[in-house]
Amino acid sequence: MTEAQTPASREVISAQLLGQPYQISCTAEEKELLHRAVRLLQERLGEASLRMEKGVLRERMLLMVALNLAADFLKTGQDLDAIESRLRRLVDISRGAE
User: Whose CA is closest to 71, among 44, 51, 47?
Assistant: First the structure.
């Protein structure tokens, strides 16, 4: 991945996914998150390519990885909700309310 400065405080991140180059514009604040997202996607695509049958279309592989990532994201959100709920109960208990 390489970066190039563009006007209006935007940067362009270069990424290689499934052998194809992509240029992705982002703000300076988003840059590190985008780098991490690209690395995660490259890792998941690599794992998927090892499990998929030969001749599977790229689009299908991308879709399957996207669905798995979306499910992971939603599960994390649910986990965070459960943690927040438990923390609220603990705070209430510490205040004497049950």
Answer: 44
